[in-house]
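Marked as duplicate of an earlier ticket. Keeping the data here for the record.
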Amino acid sequence: MDRDTWVSLGALLGTLFSVGAVSVGYIRASMRNLRNELKDEFRRENEILRQHVNHGFARIDERLNMLEQRTYDIKPTGT
């Protein structure tokens, strides 16, 4: 193989390496963006779940207070 062939082969390998490095960088950036989006989505879902749970406990508390008040409203009949 002559020198021109080696130069061409070196240039080809350099180009392949550059394309590979750019591809890896792009994939890492995409993964980082996806991870950030998933974290944000998880935070939103977690907040929505927290609101539902708090609302549910507030309703339970209201009903327990109503039952407690009804218990005090019952008057003994004297029997």
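See parent ticket for discussion. Residues 5 and 60 are 81 Å apart (CA to CA).
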